[in-house]
TrEMBL record, chain A:
Residues 52-116 form the Penicillin binding protein A dimerisation domain. Residues 1-23 form the signal peptide. One of its GO terms (biological process) is cell wall organization. Residues 155-480 form the Penicillin-binding protein transpeptidase domain. GO terms for cellular component: plasma membrane. One of its GO terms (molecular function) is penicillin binding. Keywords: Signal. It comes from Streptomyces cyaneogriseus subsp. noncyanogenus. This is Penicillin-binding protein. The keyword Cell inner membrane does not apply.
UniProtKB/TrEMBL annotation, chain B:
It holds the Pfam family FTSW_RODA_SPOVE. It comes from Streptomyces cyaneogriseus subsp. noncyanogenus. One of its GO terms (molecular function) is lipid-linked peptidoglycan transporter activity. PANTHER family: CELL CYCLE PROTEIN, PEPTIDOGLYCAN GLYCOSYLTRANSFERASE RODA. The lineage of its organism: Bacteria, Bacillati, Actinomycetota, Actinomycetes, Kitasatosporales. This is Cell division protein FtsW. Keywords: Cell cycle, Cell division, Cell shape, Membrane, Transmembrane, Transmembrane helix. It is a multi-pass membrane protein. GO terms for cellular component: cell division site; plasma membrane.
């Protein structure tokens, strides 16, 4: 019997060997593929095991983390959620991340390799570092002013510092509270459904992700092209432009809202926002040079990231002369984001140069050490400095004598341009009210802020929709806030 | 052990009477190992608390004292009544039981509404009490031989009783009385092992040599083979009715192993494997419950591809994979994601995730050592009943570990069974303590009568 007992024992050894080999297969050989299986919730659990780093505005955190003691332990909270939603985006356990929460996720969640002091040991210990913080360029006063100014209307505001490209305000209304989406429970699901169903699309970041026909505010670009191309040599010399202007090759007659546009000088045409003059100027400049100037301001750029991507603003380059005429007054296929129009104003204010806008000043470790700081940004030359100087004067005139009077700030030099953009089939939609502007404080060497405001107010009386009436006061409030807070550099 | 033992006895046999050739008692070794086992369990308990809350759990001292007292009482019983018993059996039982309590306590922290560790502690105490009773009262294992038919009757009754009770989670193997639930089939394992051992010991020669010859297989007479095949068929049939697949597989394996060891006929293994294959194919085809299990085994990620999330086996594999080589550390894994049966059938996944491949191998080796000590006692014993009993009990442990560990790691289709000592389950813990008690008894006998030779 001894022999058979030994055989049975050998059989048991075989069973044990099978178990050990199989365990090694599962735990070591196959482990990476099991770990990477999308149905494996462990990475998700590890992600929410620790509080997320914070996003800072003006030295204060606008985000936080709440310990839910659940499986996915920490949930995102937002102070002033609707105010900063176009900057922060949301960080949801169920629906992922957007905007800064998305692009800076590595730093905030602690997985960014830059945050880890000893990477080799770290891999061994399977941990993750504490999340770092993201310091934004937003000026809280400007942000609040813009948000309050838009109020219950639908629209957006973008403000940048011309000398650096720092984004000082990014507001979109109606907004939403990203905190409603933080968790993964029924409440988050309901909020998600409600926000997505909402006809006003509150989760749309209108300041950077929505393009509008820029209307008359695009005349700044057309004027820059005309001056750079020396189609106009003297801003006070009469242009040879009829009123009304028949679009080349068509029988469509373009008219103006105000009188006195026939053969008006560039200065007068700019003040009165003469469609006829600028449509003809665009045709005279030609599509190639118009497109080159538009590109200089940032149009047709698909790669702009602030660090999240910005919708492409377009200036159509395959157009006939009639279409070019319409394009040159910000209609037809010309479309721009509010941020793009703020860049247009910033280019004028910045002596013809426009810097790529950015939103993240620096990222810091939990201990306070800087991980990365915003370096110098690429500079585009939008126009000659002399052209910029002349446009600056034209824009100042608009505020001092023209349609942008409601943007004037006592003790500061303000330049602006109004716009009322037609849209919809046969221009049947309620027009968008635009205002782009910049402001230079009394003691400042250069303009401190450039702003673009768009209001798409469906409820307003059609006659009221003029950039000067609706949008300019909002721009003024933002510019005042920046000038008051010391040129936007204030972080406390 | 054999080599060392032979050396000692060879030297001793030269100038000492046979009585002096007994193996050393080694009770001190047992006590030291017990202290180690209790300390390891208490450390594990503290580790869980530190990992989860940053503090040593308030019950650590009580837990350690409780486990220590149980171990000490068991040790005293062994010292008193089975002084020659194998010194490894009891410490392995205590360590596995202690580790099981740690793992269950650790999982309890994730399911505050459903605490299983206190109940498991009560059952463990009952198990150790049964161990002490068996060691104290059963002076000679051969006594059991006389009660073989009582055992088989009791086993069949225990197996059939749950049919009268409602099914729990698809299996009709539970008896619920006054809030306590018992799995009578667990106890039936030991009783059936006793019966198989006794019957085969009494009829080995008849089984081996009589009867007709079919092709190359020498069949025993129906009169000899009939009763045991009947018992086996009834028990497996009942278990299939109750859908207790693991236990039916266990009984089948136990029967084949003992038949082989008793008769030495390789043919039995072939017949056994053939029957097993036929049975498996038939049941796998016809029984939807079993069919589902086999489908899960073949395609553990089918539910994920169907967009329904990870199934239980997939979650188990994720847990093992998350452990990797060294594990996440006690209290730091997420095997609770497995959901239902984390503390019972899938307890090994928690061990695999939090202790890693290293810890899992150590646990497998502890079981292997337990089985090996059982087999060794069988080799040393002189009486066929004792030998078959030792082999049978050890095989129960080996097969059980293989079936459940192979199931949760995807080696074989999953069948619901309790990991000996580790898993939540009162009947299982008590049964396994009874198995260790019987092994202590046979190993005491084996080492007491040992004279330097291994029986033929």
């Amino acid at each position: 019997m001894t022999r058979y007992i030994r055989h049975a024992a050998a059989f048991c050894v075989l069973l044990l060997a099978a178990l050990l080999v199989n365990a090694a297969r599962v735990q070591i050989v196959q482990a990476p593929s099991y770990d990477a299986n999308p149905a494996n919730r462990r990475p998700e659990i590890a992600r929410y095991q620790q509080p997320r780093g914070d996003i800072l505005v003006g030295g204060e955190t606008v985000t936080g983390s709440r310990d839910t003691s659940e499986h996915l332990r920490y949930e995102r909270t937002y102070a002033d959620g609707p105010l900063y939603a176009p900057v922060t985006g949301f960080a949801s356990q169920e629906y992922g991340t957007t905007l800064l929460e998305h692009t800076e996720d590595g730093v905030l969640s602690g997985t960014d390799p830059m945050l880890i002091p000893f990477p080799l040991w770290h891999d061994r210990a399977r941990g993750r570092g504490p999340g770092g913080d993201v310091v934004t360029t937003i000026d809280p006063a400007a942000q609040r002013a813009a948000y309050r100014g838009l109020g219950r209307r639908k629209g957006a505001v973008a403000a940048v510092e011309p000398s650096s490209g720092r984004i000082l305000a990014l507001v979109s209304t109606p907004s939403y509270d990203p905190g409603e989406l933080s968790g993964n429970g029924a409440a988050a699901t309901r909020s998600w459904a409600r926000l997505n169903r909402h006809p006003d699309r509150p989760m749309l970041n209108r300041a950077v992700r929505q393009t509008y026909p820029p209307g008359s505010t695009f005349k700044v670009v057309t004027a820059a092209a005309a001056l750079d191309a020396r189609v106009v040599r003297d801003v006070d010399a009469p242009t040879r432009s009829p009123d009304p202007y028949t679009l080349p090759g068509t029988r469509t007659r373009l008219t103006n809202a105000l009188r006195g546009c026939a053969d008006a000088s560039l200065r007068v045409a700019f003040e009165r926002s003469c469609n006829t003059v600028f449509a003809k100027l665009g045709v005279d400049v030609g599509v190639a040079r118009m497109a080159a100037t538009a590109r200089g301001f940032g149009f047709n750029d698909t790669d702009l990231r602030i660090p999240f991507s910005v919708a492409r603003s377009t200036f159509d380059t395959s157009v006939d002369r009639a279409q070019l005429a319409l394009s040159s007054i910000g209609q037809y296929n010309t479309r721009a984001t509010p941020l793009q129009m703020a860049m247009v104003a910033a280019a004028v204010a910045g002596g013809g140069q426009v810097r790529e806008p950015y939103l993240v000043e620096r990222t810091v470790r939990a201990g306070g050490g800087t991980v990365a700081a915003a370096g110098s940004r690429p500079v585009r030359r939008a126009m000659f400095p002399s052209t910029a100087a002349r446009l600056k004067q034209l824009m100042t005139d608009v505020v001092e004598n023209g349609t942008g009077a409601r943007a004037a700030i006592r003790g500061a030099r303000v330049g602006g341009k109004t716009g009322t953009a037609q849209h919809g089939v046969d221009n049947s939609g309620v027009p968008y009210a635009w205002f782009v502007s910049w402001a230079q404080g009394h003691g400042d060497l250069e303009p401190k802020v450039a702003v673009a405001v768009v209001v798409e107010d469906a409820a307003a009386d059609r006659a009221d929709i003029t950039g000067g009436g609706v949008a300019a006061p909002i721009a003024r409030a933002v510019m005042e806030a920046v000038l008051a807070s010391g040129g936007g550099r204030g972080e406390g | 052990m054999t080599k060392a033992g032979s050396g000692i006895t060879a030297a001793a046999a030269a100038d000492a009477p046979a009585a002096a050739a007994r193996l050393p008692r080694r009770r001190g070794v047992e006590l030291s190992l017990l202290v180690l086992a209790v300390l390891l369990s208490v450390f594990g308990y503290c580790d869980v608390g530190l990992a989860q809350h940053g503090t040593i759990p308030p019950g650590a001292a009580g837990y350690g004292a409780g486990l220590g007292v149980l171990a000490l009482l068991a040790h005293l019983a062994v010292r008193l009544r089975a002084p020659y018993a194998d010194p490894l059996l009891l410490p392995i039982g205590v360590l596995l039981n202690g580790l099981g309590l740690v793992l269950i306590y650790r999982l309890d922290l994730e399911t505050p509404g459903d605490r299983a560790a206190p109940t498991q502690l009560v059952w463990s105490t009952l198990g150790v009490a049964l161990f002490i009773v068996v060691v104290l009262l059963l002076r000679d294992h051969r006594l059991l031989q006389r009660y073989a038919y009582v055992c088989v009757a009791a086993a069949l009754v225990l197996l059939t009783v749950p049919i009268l009770f409602p099914a729990v989670n698809g299996a009709r193997i539970w008896v619920r009385i006054a809030g306590f639930s018992i799995q009578p089939g667990e106890f039936a394992k030991v009783l059936l092992a006793v019966f198989f051992a006794a019957y085969l010991a009494a009829n080995r020669s008849a089984l081996a040599y009589a009867g007709r010859r079919v092709w190359r297989l020498q069949l025993p007479t129906g009169r000899v083979l009939g009763p045991i095949v009947a018992v086996w068929l009834v028990s497996v049939g009942v278990l299939v009715l109750e859908r207790d697949l693991g236990t039916s597989l266990l009984f089948f394996g136990l029967f084949v192993v003992l038949l082989y060891v008793a008769t030495g006929r390789t043919g039995w293994i072939a017949v056994g494997l053939l029957l097993a294959a036929l049975g498996a194919v038939a049941v796998g085809r016809l029984e939807p419950h079993v069919h589902g299990r086999i489908e899960d085994w073949l395609h553990p990620f089918a539910t994920i591809e169907a967009g329904q999330g990870a199934g239980q086996l997939a979650q188990s594999l994720f847990a093992f994979a998350a452990g990797g080589m060294t594990g996440t550390g006690l209290g730091l894994g997420h095997s609770v994601l497995i959901g239902f049966a984390t503390k019972s059938d899938f307890i090994l996944a928690t061990a695999g995730e939090e202790l890693g491949f290293a810890g899992l191998s150590a646990i497998f080796l502890l079981y292997a050592l337990l089985v090996e000590r059982g087999y060794r006692a069988g080799l040393l014993l002189r009486d066929p009943f004792g030998r078959l009993l030792a082999v049978g009990l050890a095989s129960i442990v080996a097969l059980q570990v293989f079936v459940i560990a192979g199931g949760v790691t995807g080696l074989i289709p999953l069948t619901g069974m309790a990991m000996p000592f580790l898993a939540q389950g009162g009947s299982s813990v008590v049964t396994n303590w009874a198995i260790v008690a019987l092994l202590i008894r046979v190993s005491d006998c084996a080492r007491r009568q040992y004279d330097g030779r291994v029986a033929p």
